[in-house]
Amino acid sequence: MNNTLCSIGIFIDGGYYAKINEALKEQSSQNIVVGKLFDYLRGSIAQLAGIPEHDCVIAQSHYYRGRYRVQDANAKHLLYSERKFEDDLIENDVVFHYKHLREIRNGNETTIIEKGIDVWFALEAYQLSLLHNFDYVVLITGDADHEMLARKLRTLKRRVILLTWNLGAQSSTSRLLKEEVWHHIELREACATDSSLQSKLCRTVSTQ
Q1: Which H or E run contains 204?
Q2: Residue 165: which CATH number?
Q3: Which residue among 37, 69, 72, 88 is buried most deeply as judged by most CB within 10 Å?
Q4: What is the pLDDT of residue 207?
Q5: Tens digits of per-residue pLDDT, 5-16?
Q6: Which DSSP state fits 169?
Q7: Residues whose CB falls within 8 Å of the CB of residue 7, separated by 6 or more in sequence, listed in order
Q8: Whole-structure pTM over 0.85, yes or no?
Q9: CB-based contact 142:166 (threshold 8 Å)
């Protein structure tokens, strides 16, 4: 792949990404900065490919998440934080895809239903990778449900990179998923090697 541009498609599992940010906020009052994460990915892929970083182009990036209807989000005081995060996505040309969440109450317990997001994520990641012929497909997720997606992308001869940040049980990574990808970037391990990396990827946020 020397002396040639390489195209990158990034697909973000919003539920997984949110769990990482929740853990970061709890542990260090920080959140990931999307643009800095993308810069890190371009640099990492350039190194893997053996080409200059400016020859690595993020062709498309997509974010998938369930979210509350506006009345529910307003009642839960989520509208500002959701809009602020969307501003970060827009500034980095990330296309966001949402389906409505549903709450089912059973006595004093409430179950949040996020139906269809994983299937949508997988179908579009596969379809767009096929149509646009990405050289590298980055999956930001830890979900075992995406094992078959990674396997099918391999049949398209795409180099699949899994990016994870295991900060606890809620953001743990499926072993089966790791086995299916071409390369795995675990940010907890990367930060242990480079003590300045977390500060490069994150911003300090209010704990209020």
Answers
A1: strand 202-204
A2: 3.40.50.1010
A3: 37
A4: 59
A5: 899 999 999 999
A6: G
A7: 57, 59, 132, 133, 134, 135, 136
A8: yes
A9: yes
Scanning the structure block, which residue is given the tokens 């549903």?
Answer: 102
Residue 154 lies in a domain: yes
Instruction: List, in order, residues 6 or more apart from 41 with CB less than 8 Å away.
Output: 8, 10, 58, 138, 161, 163, 185
Structure-block tokens of residue 7: 């195209």
Q: State mean pLDDT over 182-194.
A: 95
Residues 94-131: tens digit of each pLDDT: 999 999 887 777 777 766 777 789 999 999 999 999 99
The beta strand positions in 43-142, using DSSP E, are 56-67, 95-100, 102-106, 109-113, 136-140
Examine residue 1 and state whether it is found in any structural domain, yes or no: no
Q: Could you give the number of structural domains in the chain?
A: 1
What are the counts of helices (DSSP H) followed by strands (DSSP E) for the chain? 9, 10
d(CA 168, CA 89): 25
For residue 184 the two structure tokens come to: 């795995």
Domain interval for residue 191: 6-204
